[in-house]
Design a protein that fits this description.
The first copy, chain A, has 7 helices and 11 strands. Chain A is of the alpha+beta class. The first copy, chain A, has a 4-stranded antiparallel beta sheet with strand order 1-8-3-6. In chain A, strands 2-7-4-5 form a 4-stranded antiparallel beta sheet. In chain A, helix 2 crosses helix 3, helix 4 packs across helix 7 and helix 5 packs across helix 6. The structure holds a DNA duplex (30 and 30 nucleotides).
Amino acid sequence: MRSIALAKNNAVKYPSCLSTFTQDNAKIFPHPEVRNILNYHSGQTILFEDDTIHYLYEIVTGTVKTYTILNDGRRQITGFYTKDDILGLPARGRYFYSAEAITDTTVCYHTLSRMEQLLQSNPDLAQKMIEIAYHQLSDTHAQLVSLGRKKPDERVATFLLNCQRWTTIQVPSQEAVVSLPMSRLDIADYLGLTQETVCRVFSKFNRAGLIKLLSASQFTLKDQKQLSALAQTL
Amino acid sequence: MRSIALAKNNAVKYPSCLSTFTQDNAKIFPHPEVRNILNYHSGQTILFEDDTIHYLYEIVTGTVKTYTILNDGRRQITGFYTKDDILGLPARGRYFYSAEAITDTTVCYHTLSRMEQLLQSNPDLAQKMIEIAYHQLSDTHAQLVSLGRKKPDERVATFLLNCQRWTTIQVPSQEAVVSLPMSRLDIADYLGLTQETVCRVFSKFNRAGLIKLLSASQFTLKDQKQLSALAQTL
DNA sequence: CGCCTGCTTGATGACAATCAAGTTTAGTGG
DNA sequence: CCACTAAACTTGATTGTCATCAAGCAGGCG
Protein backbone atom coordinates (compact mmCIF):
# COMPACT_ATOMS: atom_id res chain seq x y z
CA MET A 1 0.00 0.00 0.00
CA ARG A 2 1.29 3.40 -0.84
CA SER A 3 0.66 6.87 0.37
CA ILE A 4 -2.18 8.61 -1.35
CA ALA A 5 -0.70 11.91 -0.50
CA LEU A 6 0.07 11.64 -4.12
CA ALA A 7 -1.91 12.09 -7.19
CA LYS A 8 0.68 10.11 -9.11
CA ASN A 9 -0.62 7.61 -11.54
CA ASN A 10 2.22 5.37 -12.56
CA ALA A 11 3.48 5.03 -9.04
CA VAL A 12 3.74 1.60 -7.54
CA LYS A 13 4.02 0.58 -3.94
CA TYR A 14 7.47 1.17 -2.59
CA PRO A 15 8.71 -0.94 0.24
CA SER A 16 9.53 1.19 3.22
CA CYS A 17 9.46 -0.68 6.50
CA LEU A 18 12.18 0.99 8.47
CA SER A 19 11.67 -1.67 11.11
CA THR A 20 13.58 -4.02 8.90
CA PHE A 21 16.59 -1.85 9.38
CA THR A 22 16.16 -0.70 12.91
CA GLN A 23 15.25 -4.06 14.30
CA ASP A 24 16.53 -6.89 12.18
CA ASN A 25 19.65 -5.23 10.88
CA ALA A 26 20.62 -3.00 13.70
CA LYS A 27 18.80 -4.32 16.75
CA ILE A 28 18.73 -0.86 18.20
CA PHE A 29 15.10 -0.87 19.14
CA PRO A 30 13.30 -3.44 21.19
CA HIS A 31 10.71 -5.50 19.39
CA PRO A 32 7.52 -3.64 18.53
CA GLU A 33 5.63 -5.72 21.03
CA VAL A 34 7.74 -4.43 23.83
CA ARG A 35 8.09 -0.68 23.79
CA ASN A 36 7.98 1.27 20.57
CA ILE A 37 4.38 0.71 19.57
CA LEU A 38 1.64 3.29 20.11
CA ASN A 39 -2.09 3.11 19.53
CA TYR A 40 -4.36 6.00 18.62
CA HIS A 41 -8.11 6.12 18.42
CA SER A 42 -9.89 7.69 15.51
CA GLY A 43 -9.63 11.46 15.90
CA GLN A 44 -6.57 11.51 18.15
CA THR A 45 -3.62 13.68 17.27
CA ILE A 46 -0.30 11.93 16.72
CA LEU A 47 1.92 14.95 16.30
CA PHE A 48 1.67 18.74 16.15
CA GLU A 49 3.07 21.06 13.52
CA ASP A 50 6.08 23.08 14.70
CA ASP A 51 6.83 20.73 17.58
CA THR A 52 10.46 19.78 17.87
CA ILE A 53 10.99 16.45 16.20
CA HIS A 54 11.90 13.63 18.52
CA TYR A 55 10.31 10.67 16.80
CA LEU A 56 9.73 9.23 13.38
CA TYR A 57 6.52 7.23 13.02
CA GLU A 58 5.87 4.23 10.85
CA ILE A 59 2.24 3.29 10.38
CA VAL A 60 1.53 -0.34 11.15
CA THR A 61 -2.26 -0.27 10.68
CA GLY A 62 -4.83 2.47 10.17
CA THR A 63 -5.12 5.67 8.19
CA VAL A 64 -3.69 9.05 9.13
CA LYS A 65 -4.18 12.56 7.74
CA THR A 66 -1.60 15.36 7.89
CA TYR A 67 -2.65 18.99 7.77
CA THR A 68 -1.85 22.63 8.36
CA ILE A 69 -4.28 25.13 9.88
CA LEU A 70 -4.26 28.84 9.02
CA ASN A 71 -4.94 31.63 11.54
CA ASP A 72 -8.64 31.82 10.80
CA GLY A 73 -9.21 28.08 10.86
CA ARG A 74 -8.91 27.23 7.20
CA ARG A 75 -7.33 23.81 6.92
CA GLN A 76 -5.29 22.18 4.18
CA ILE A 77 -4.86 18.45 4.41
CA THR A 78 -1.51 17.68 2.85
CA GLY A 79 -1.77 13.93 2.71
CA PHE A 80 -3.33 10.65 3.72
CA TYR A 81 -1.03 7.92 4.98
CA THR A 82 -1.50 4.24 5.63
CA LYS A 83 0.33 0.98 6.34
CA ASP A 84 4.10 1.21 5.92
CA ASP A 85 4.09 4.96 5.31
CA ILE A 86 6.46 7.16 7.29
CA LEU A 87 5.37 10.22 9.24
CA GLY A 88 7.45 12.96 10.77
CA LEU A 89 10.27 13.39 8.31
CA PRO A 90 12.40 16.15 9.80
CA ALA A 91 13.01 19.50 8.14
CA ARG A 92 14.71 22.24 10.11
CA GLY A 93 14.09 20.21 13.25
CA ARG A 94 10.32 20.72 13.30
CA TYR A 95 7.35 18.80 12.01
CA PHE A 96 5.88 20.70 9.11
CA TYR A 97 2.38 19.30 9.58
CA SER A 98 0.06 18.02 12.28
CA ALA A 99 -1.07 14.42 12.03
CA GLU A 100 -4.30 12.86 13.22
CA ALA A 101 -5.62 9.31 13.13
CA ILE A 102 -8.65 8.91 10.84
CA THR A 103 -9.30 5.31 11.85
CA ASP A 104 -7.93 3.55 14.90
CA THR A 105 -4.22 3.44 14.18
CA THR A 106 -1.12 1.64 15.36
CA VAL A 107 2.28 3.18 14.77
CA CYS A 108 5.83 2.10 15.43
CA TYR A 109 8.07 4.97 16.46
CA HIS A 110 11.81 5.46 16.24
CA THR A 111 13.76 8.13 18.05
CA LEU A 112 15.33 10.59 15.68
CA SER A 113 18.68 10.71 17.42
CA ARG A 114 19.06 6.93 17.16
CA MET A 115 18.00 7.14 13.58
CA GLU A 116 20.71 9.65 12.82
CA GLN A 117 23.31 7.49 14.48
CA LEU A 118 22.14 4.54 12.42
CA LEU A 119 22.37 6.53 9.23
CA GLN A 120 26.08 7.01 9.79
CA SER A 121 26.79 3.31 9.84
CA ASN A 122 24.02 1.92 7.69
CA PRO A 123 24.07 3.11 4.06
CA ASP A 124 21.13 0.91 3.16
CA LEU A 125 18.98 2.65 5.74
CA ALA A 126 20.15 6.00 4.39
CA GLN A 127 19.25 4.90 0.88
CA LYS A 128 15.83 3.89 2.11
CA MET A 129 15.24 7.20 3.87
CA ILE A 130 16.21 9.05 0.70
CA GLU A 131 13.82 6.95 -1.35
CA ILE A 132 10.98 7.58 1.06
CA ALA A 133 11.55 11.32 0.99
CA TYR A 134 11.75 11.37 -2.81
CA HIS A 135 8.57 9.38 -3.21
CA GLN A 136 6.73 11.70 -0.86
CA LEU A 137 8.15 14.65 -2.77
CA SER A 138 7.03 13.21 -6.09
CA ASP A 139 3.54 12.59 -4.70
CA THR A 140 3.32 16.09 -3.29
CA HIS A 141 4.30 17.58 -6.66
CA ALA A 142 1.44 15.68 -8.28
CA GLN A 143 -0.89 17.15 -5.67
CA LEU A 144 0.41 20.64 -6.48
CA VAL A 145 -0.73 20.12 -10.05
CA SER A 146 -4.18 19.07 -8.86
CA LEU A 147 -4.63 22.05 -6.57
CA GLY A 148 -3.14 24.60 -8.93
CA ARG A 149 -4.54 23.64 -12.30
CA LYS A 150 -7.16 20.90 -12.21
CA LYS A 151 -10.89 21.55 -12.12
CA PRO A 152 -13.04 20.09 -9.31
CA ASP A 153 -14.17 17.11 -11.42
CA GLU A 154 -10.60 16.32 -12.33
CA ARG A 155 -9.36 16.60 -8.78
CA VAL A 156 -12.01 14.21 -7.53
CA ALA A 157 -11.32 11.75 -10.35
CA THR A 158 -7.62 11.85 -9.52
CA PHE A 159 -8.42 11.31 -5.87
CA LEU A 160 -10.73 8.36 -6.48
CA LEU A 161 -8.15 6.61 -8.62
CA ASN A 162 -5.58 7.14 -5.91
CA CYS A 163 -7.97 5.69 -3.39
CA GLN A 164 -8.24 2.61 -5.52
CA ARG A 165 -4.49 2.06 -5.63
CA TRP A 166 -4.35 2.71 -1.95
CA THR A 167 -7.07 0.23 -1.03
CA THR A 168 -6.27 -2.45 -3.54
CA ILE A 169 -3.39 -4.68 -2.62
CA GLN A 170 -2.37 -5.83 -6.06
CA VAL A 171 -3.77 -5.64 -9.56
CA PRO A 172 -7.03 -3.75 -9.17
CA SER A 173 -9.96 -5.77 -10.42
CA GLN A 174 -12.59 -3.65 -12.13
CA GLU A 175 -15.21 -4.22 -9.52
CA ALA A 176 -13.19 -4.20 -6.30
CA VAL A 177 -14.73 -2.24 -3.48
CA VAL A 178 -12.77 0.88 -2.57
CA SER A 179 -13.17 2.41 0.88
CA LEU A 180 -13.06 6.06 1.89
CA PRO A 181 -12.14 6.17 5.56
CA MET A 182 -11.99 9.97 5.58
CA SER A 183 -14.98 12.32 5.73
CA ARG A 184 -16.24 14.48 2.87
CA LEU A 185 -14.83 17.47 4.70
CA ASP A 186 -11.42 15.80 4.85
CA ILE A 187 -11.56 15.11 1.13
CA ALA A 188 -12.59 18.71 0.49
CA ASP A 189 -9.75 20.07 2.60
CA TYR A 190 -7.36 17.79 0.76
CA LEU A 191 -8.59 18.85 -2.69
CA GLY A 192 -8.97 22.56 -1.97
CA LEU A 193 -12.77 22.43 -2.34
CA THR A 194 -15.83 22.53 -0.08
CA GLN A 195 -17.60 19.40 1.11
CA GLU A 196 -20.68 20.44 -0.87
CA THR A 197 -18.70 20.49 -4.10
CA VAL A 198 -17.15 17.11 -3.34
CA CYS A 199 -20.62 15.70 -2.67
CA ARG A 200 -22.00 17.05 -5.91
CA VAL A 201 -19.15 15.59 -7.96
CA PHE A 202 -19.54 12.23 -6.24
CA SER A 203 -23.25 12.25 -7.09
CA LYS A 204 -22.54 13.33 -10.64
CA PHE A 205 -20.03 10.52 -11.17
CA ASN A 206 -22.51 8.10 -9.63
CA ARG A 207 -25.32 9.23 -11.92
CA ALA A 208 -23.01 9.14 -14.95
CA GLY A 209 -22.00 5.59 -14.13
CA LEU A 210 -18.31 6.35 -13.63
CA ILE A 211 -18.49 4.96 -10.12
CA LYS A 212 -21.11 3.19 -8.04
CA LEU A 213 -21.57 4.56 -4.54
CA LEU A 214 -22.32 1.68 -2.18
CA SER A 215 -22.45 3.90 0.88
CA ALA A 216 -20.96 7.23 1.88
CA SER A 217 -17.64 5.51 2.48
CA GLN A 218 -17.54 2.78 -0.14
CA PHE A 219 -17.67 2.68 -3.90
CA THR A 220 -16.61 0.69 -6.93
CA LEU A 221 -15.06 2.00 -10.13
CA LYS A 222 -17.34 1.39 -13.12
CA ASP A 223 -15.51 3.27 -15.86
CA GLN A 224 -11.87 3.51 -15.02
CA LYS A 225 -10.91 4.63 -18.52
CA GLN A 226 -13.12 7.69 -18.45
CA LEU A 227 -12.05 8.53 -14.91
CA SER A 228 -8.40 8.33 -15.91
CA ALA A 229 -9.07 10.64 -18.82
CA LEU A 230 -10.73 13.11 -16.46
CA ALA A 231 -7.86 12.80 -14.01
CA GLN A 232 -5.42 13.70 -16.78
CA THR A 233 -3.63 10.58 -15.77
CA LEU A 234 -2.28 8.94 -18.87
CA MET B 1 20.00 31.44 -1.32
CA ARG B 2 17.26 28.98 -0.88
CA SER B 3 14.64 27.50 -3.09
CA ILE B 4 11.50 29.54 -3.33
CA ALA B 5 9.56 26.48 -4.24
CA LEU B 6 8.46 27.07 -0.73
CA ALA B 7 6.07 29.34 0.89
CA LYS B 8 7.73 28.66 4.21
CA ASN B 9 8.35 31.62 6.36
CA ASN B 10 10.70 30.60 9.08
CA ALA B 11 12.94 28.74 6.72
CA VAL B 12 16.56 29.72 6.52
CA LYS B 13 19.13 29.03 3.89
CA TYR B 14 20.39 25.49 4.05
CA PRO B 15 23.83 24.72 2.72
CA SER B 16 23.68 22.14 0.01
CA CYS B 17 26.68 22.18 -2.31
CA LEU B 18 27.07 18.56 -3.23
CA SER B 19 30.26 19.51 -5.01
CA THR B 20 31.91 19.64 -1.65
CA PHE B 21 31.29 15.96 -1.29
CA THR B 22 31.77 14.79 -4.80
CA GLN B 23 34.90 16.74 -5.45
CA ASP B 24 36.71 17.56 -2.25
CA ASN B 25 35.80 14.50 -0.27
CA ALA B 26 35.49 11.87 -2.89
CA LYS B 27 37.32 13.20 -5.92
CA ILE B 28 34.97 11.30 -8.15
CA PHE B 29 34.29 14.08 -10.56
CA PRO B 30 36.81 16.20 -12.38
CA HIS B 31 36.88 19.84 -11.43
CA PRO B 32 33.87 21.85 -12.57
CA GLU B 33 36.05 23.77 -14.98
CA VAL B 34 36.88 20.61 -16.82
CA ARG B 35 33.86 18.54 -17.64
CA ASN B 36 30.75 18.56 -15.48
CA ILE B 37 29.54 22.10 -16.07
CA LEU B 38 26.71 22.97 -18.46
CA ASN B 39 25.34 26.34 -19.58
CA TYR B 40 21.78 27.10 -20.60
CA HIS B 41 20.32 30.22 -22.12
CA SER B 42 17.14 31.75 -20.85
CA GLY B 43 14.25 29.61 -22.10
CA GLN B 44 16.24 26.43 -22.68
CA THR B 45 15.03 23.17 -21.21
CA ILE B 46 17.35 21.41 -18.81
CA LEU B 47 15.40 18.21 -18.29
CA PHE B 48 12.09 16.66 -19.32
CA GLU B 49 9.47 15.09 -17.08
CA ASP B 50 9.31 11.29 -17.33
CA ASP B 51 12.79 11.01 -18.81
CA THR B 52 14.94 8.37 -17.21
CA ILE B 53 17.16 9.99 -14.62
CA HIS B 54 20.84 9.94 -15.42
CA TYR B 55 21.99 13.15 -13.83
CA LEU B 56 21.49 15.28 -10.79
CA TYR B 57 21.91 19.01 -11.35
CA GLU B 58 23.26 21.58 -8.96
CA ILE B 59 22.62 25.19 -9.90
CA VAL B 60 25.75 27.33 -9.89
CA THR B 61 24.22 30.56 -11.20
CA GLY B 62 20.84 31.54 -12.63
CA THR B 63 17.20 30.78 -11.94
CA VAL B 64 15.26 27.72 -13.05
CA LYS B 65 11.57 26.82 -13.04
CA THR B 66 10.17 23.29 -12.79
CA TYR B 67 6.74 22.45 -14.14
CA THR B 68 4.24 19.86 -15.29
CA ILE B 69 2.01 20.26 -18.34
CA LEU B 70 -1.46 18.72 -18.63
CA ASN B 71 -2.89 17.25 -21.84
CA ASP B 72 -4.62 20.43 -22.89
CA GLY B 73 -1.68 22.69 -22.17
CA ARG B 74 -2.47 23.85 -18.67
CA ARG B 75 0.77 24.27 -16.79
CA GLN B 76 1.60 24.10 -13.11
CA ILE B 77 4.97 25.49 -12.08
CA THR B 78 6.04 23.48 -9.07
CA GLY B 79 9.03 25.52 -8.03
CA PHE B 80 11.67 28.13 -8.70
CA TYR B 81 15.27 27.20 -8.01
CA THR B 82 18.47 29.17 -7.78
CA LYS B 83 22.11 29.02 -6.66
CA ASP B 84 22.99 25.88 -4.69
CA ASP B 85 19.60 24.26 -5.23
CA ILE B 86 19.45 20.68 -6.46
CA LEU B 87 17.38 19.58 -9.46
CA GLY B 88 16.47 16.12 -10.61
CA LEU B 89 15.95 14.24 -7.38
CA PRO B 90 15.04 10.73 -8.45
CA ALA B 91 11.71 9.06 -7.70
CA ARG B 92 10.91 5.76 -9.37
CA GLY B 93 13.78 6.41 -11.77
CA ARG B 94 12.08 9.28 -13.61
CA TYR B 95 12.12 13.03 -13.29
CA PHE B 96 8.75 14.15 -11.99
CA TYR B 97 8.96 17.60 -13.55
CA SER B 98 10.44 19.40 -16.52
CA ALA B 99 12.96 22.15 -15.82
CA GLU B 100 13.68 25.26 -17.85
CA ALA B 101 16.16 28.08 -17.39
CA ILE B 102 14.48 31.42 -16.66
CA THR B 103 17.71 33.42 -16.83
CA ASP B 104 20.98 32.26 -18.32
CA THR B 105 22.00 29.45 -16.05
CA THR B 106 25.05 27.40 -15.19
CA VAL B 107 24.66 23.99 -13.62
CA CYS B 108 27.03 21.38 -12.30
CA TYR B 109 25.85 17.85 -12.97
CA HIS B 110 26.59 14.57 -11.27
CA THR B 111 25.82 11.16 -12.70
CA LEU B 112 23.24 9.33 -10.65
CA SER B 113 25.04 6.00 -10.70
CA ARG B 114 28.18 7.58 -9.27
CA MET B 115 26.08 9.33 -6.73
CA GLU B 116 24.58 6.07 -5.59
CA GLN B 117 27.99 4.50 -5.24
CA LEU B 118 29.13 7.46 -3.20
CA LEU B 119 26.14 7.19 -0.90
CA GLN B 120 27.23 3.72 0.11
CA SER B 121 30.58 4.88 1.39
CA ASN B 122 29.85 8.45 2.39
CA PRO B 123 27.30 8.85 5.18
CA ASP B 124 27.76 12.60 5.25
CA LEU B 125 26.72 12.84 1.62
CA ALA B 126 23.73 10.64 2.39
CA GLN B 127 22.79 12.89 5.28
CA LYS B 128 23.04 15.89 2.98
CA MET B 129 20.84 14.29 0.32
CA ILE B 130 18.25 13.47 2.95
CA GLU B 131 18.28 17.04 4.23
CA ILE B 132 17.86 18.44 0.74
CA ALA B 133 14.92 16.18 0.03
CA TYR B 134 13.26 17.04 3.36
CA HIS B 135 13.67 20.74 2.83
CA GLN B 136 12.17 20.52 -0.61
CA LEU B 137 9.34 18.44 0.83
CA SER B 138 8.69 20.99 3.56
CA ASP B 139 8.66 23.79 1.01
CA THR B 140 6.29 21.91 -1.24
CA HIS B 141 3.89 21.32 1.65
CA ALA B 142 3.80 25.04 2.30
CA GLN B 143 2.95 25.57 -1.34
CA LEU B 144 0.11 23.03 -1.06
CA VAL B 145 -1.41 25.22 1.64
CA SER B 146 -1.15 28.27 -0.62
CA LEU B 147 -2.80 26.56 -3.59
CA GLY B 148 -5.46 24.76 -1.62
CA ARG B 149 -6.60 27.30 0.91
CA LYS B 150 -5.15 30.78 0.43
CA LYS B 151 -6.91 33.54 -1.49
CA PRO B 152 -5.18 35.24 -4.41
CA ASP B 153 -4.03 38.20 -2.28
CA GLU B 154 -2.56 35.86 0.30
CA ARG B 155 -0.80 33.73 -2.28
CA VAL B 156 0.83 36.75 -3.85
CA ALA B 157 1.87 38.13 -0.46
CA THR B 158 3.41 34.77 0.41
CA PHE B 159 5.19 34.69 -2.91
CA LEU B 160 6.59 38.20 -2.60
CA LEU B 161 7.98 37.48 0.84
CA ASN B 162 9.60 34.34 -0.48
CA CYS B 163 11.11 36.34 -3.30
CA GLN B 164 12.64 38.64 -0.76
CA ARG B 165 14.32 35.82 1.13
CA TRP B 166 15.42 34.37 -2.14
CA THR B 167 17.00 37.58 -3.44
CA THR B 168 18.40 38.91 -0.21
CA ILE B 169 21.64 37.36 0.86
CA GLN B 170 21.41 38.00 4.57
CA VAL B 171 19.28 40.06 6.90
CA PRO B 172 16.77 41.75 4.61
CA SER B 173 16.91 45.50 4.95
CA GLN B 174 13.50 47.13 4.67
CA GLU B 175 14.24 48.85 1.42
CA ALA B 176 16.31 46.24 -0.42
CA VAL B 177 15.38 45.80 -4.06
CA VAL B 178 13.85 42.42 -4.82
CA SER B 179 13.96 41.07 -8.35
CA LEU B 180 11.41 38.95 -10.18
CA PRO B 181 13.25 37.12 -12.94
CA MET B 182 10.14 35.17 -13.93
CA SER B 183 7.25 36.50 -16.02
CA ARG B 184 3.76 37.30 -14.71
CA LEU B 185 2.54 34.18 -16.47
CA ASP B 186 5.15 32.10 -14.64
CA ILE B 187 4.05 33.56 -11.34
CA ALA B 188 0.43 32.86 -12.22
CA ASP B 189 1.17 29.27 -13.16
CA TYR B 190 3.06 28.88 -9.89
CA LEU B 191 0.25 30.33 -7.78
CA GLY B 192 -2.66 28.67 -9.56
CA LEU B 193 -3.98 32.01 -10.88
CA THR B 194 -4.11 33.90 -14.18
CA GLN B 195 -1.58 36.53 -15.12
CA GLU B 196 -4.34 39.13 -15.06
CA THR B 197 -5.14 38.36 -11.45
CA VAL B 198 -1.46 38.47 -10.50
CA CYS B 199 -1.17 41.86 -12.21
CA ARG B 200 -4.18 43.23 -10.41
CA VAL B 201 -2.92 42.12 -7.01
CA PHE B 202 0.51 43.61 -7.74
CA SER B 203 -1.14 46.91 -8.65
CA LYS B 204 -3.36 46.77 -5.60
CA PHE B 205 -0.40 46.18 -3.27
CA ASN B 206 1.46 48.99 -5.02
CA ARG B 207 -1.45 51.41 -4.61
CA ALA B 208 -1.92 50.37 -0.98
CA GLY B 209 1.74 51.00 -0.25
CA LEU B 210 2.57 47.44 0.72
CA ILE B 211 5.21 47.30 -1.97
CA LYS B 212 6.71 49.75 -4.41
CA LEU B 213 6.96 48.51 -7.99
CA LEU B 214 10.14 49.90 -9.55
CA SER B 215 9.58 48.09 -12.83
CA ALA B 216 7.75 44.99 -13.92
CA SER B 217 10.57 42.87 -12.55
CA GLN B 218 11.74 44.82 -9.51
CA PHE B 219 10.11 46.00 -6.31
CA THR B 220 10.80 46.92 -2.71
CA LEU B 221 8.82 45.87 0.35
CA LYS B 222 7.25 48.87 2.07
CA ASP B 223 5.08 47.20 4.70
CA GLN B 224 6.49 43.82 5.54
CA LYS B 225 4.33 43.44 8.62
CA GLN B 226 1.07 43.80 6.76
CA LEU B 227 2.30 41.54 3.98
CA SER B 228 3.25 38.87 6.50
CA ALA B 229 -0.19 39.11 8.06
CA LEU B 230 -1.74 38.66 4.63
CA ALA B 231 0.54 35.75 3.89
CA GLN B 232 -0.65 34.06 7.09
CA THR B 233 3.01 33.77 7.90
CA LEU B 234 3.40 34.29 11.60
C1' DC C 1 12.94 54.40 -34.12
C1' DG C 2 9.44 51.02 -34.47
C1' DC C 3 7.76 46.63 -33.71
C1' DC C 4 6.68 42.88 -30.74
C1' DT C 5 6.20 40.76 -26.55
C1' DG C 6 4.87 41.17 -21.99
C1' DC C 7 2.31 43.86 -18.85
C1' DT C 8 -1.78 46.33 -17.26
C1' DT C 9 -6.59 47.63 -16.86
C1' DG C 10 -11.50 47.13 -17.88
C1' DA C 11 -16.11 44.61 -18.76
C1' DT C 12 -18.52 40.40 -18.54
C1' DG C 13 -19.88 35.84 -17.24
C1' DA C 14 -19.19 31.08 -15.40
C1' DC C 15 -18.48 28.35 -11.70
C1' DA C 16 -17.69 27.08 -7.17
C1' DA C 17 -18.45 29.05 -2.36
C1' DT C 18 -21.82 30.18 0.70
C1' DC C 19 -26.12 29.85 2.92
C1' DA C 20 -29.93 26.94 3.97
C1' DA C 21 -32.88 22.82 4.36
C1' DG C 22 -33.61 18.13 4.36
C1' DT C 23 -31.98 13.20 4.65
C1' DT C 24 -29.34 9.43 5.96
C1' DT C 25 -26.18 7.13 8.94
C1' DA C 26 -23.96 5.85 13.07
C1' DG C 27 -23.67 5.72 17.83
C1' DT C 28 -25.96 5.53 22.58
C1' DG C 29 -28.79 4.18 25.99
C1' DG C 30 -33.13 2.36 27.44
C1' DC D 1 -33.24 -4.81 19.68
C1' DC D 2 -35.09 -0.62 18.78
C1' DA D 3 -35.80 4.38 19.63
C1' DC D 4 -33.51 8.63 19.81
C1' DT D 5 -29.98 12.00 18.93
C1' DA D 6 -26.27 14.04 16.80
C1' DA D 7 -23.20 14.14 13.18
C1' DA D 8 -22.34 13.49 8.49
C1' DC D 9 -23.95 13.69 4.07
C1' DT D 10 -26.79 15.39 0.20
C1' DT D 11 -29.36 18.65 -2.56
C1' DG D 12 -31.05 23.24 -3.72
C1' DA D 13 -30.86 28.55 -4.30
C1' DT D 14 -28.13 32.53 -4.39
C1' DT D 15 -23.92 35.30 -4.38
C1' DG D 16 -19.26 36.68 -5.04
C1' DT D 17 -14.94 36.02 -7.05
C1' DC D 18 -11.79 35.09 -10.31
C1' DA D 19 -11.30 33.49 -15.21
C1' DT D 20 -12.14 34.94 -19.59
C1' DC D 21 -12.39 38.09 -23.29
C1' DA D 22 -10.84 42.36 -25.00
C1' DA D 23 -8.22 46.45 -25.62
C1' DG D 24 -4.51 49.69 -24.60
C1' DC D 25 0.27 50.56 -22.87
C1' DA D 26 5.16 50.34 -22.24
C1' DG D 27 9.60 48.82 -22.37
C1' DG D 28 13.30 46.23 -24.60
C1' DC D 29 15.66 44.68 -28.61
C1' DG D 30 16.72 44.64 -33.33
